[in-house]
Amino acid sequence: MEAETAPEPGALVYDPVARRVGEYRDTTGPYAMLRPVGGGREWQADPARIRPATAEERLAAALRAANTRSERAL
Hints:
The protein is α+β, with helices and mostly antiparallel strands. The protein has one helix spanning 55-73; strands spanning 12-15, 20-28, 31-36, 43-45, 51-52. The model has no long low-confidence stretch (mean pLDDT 93).
């Protein structure tokens, strides 16, 4: 994604390199900073390669986050 079309902070995007959905945080230098759905360590992504997550990708990421939370509660 180009700088003028950067997603809003908090938007869910798909990183094809990491093959996962992340919450867009900001751009730092040449990188987009993404955070896993449900929390965790941020990772760097190429802003030119990320794209908005599809409804299916958002749902799958939310389900993984919910499963992780319930496993930690046990």
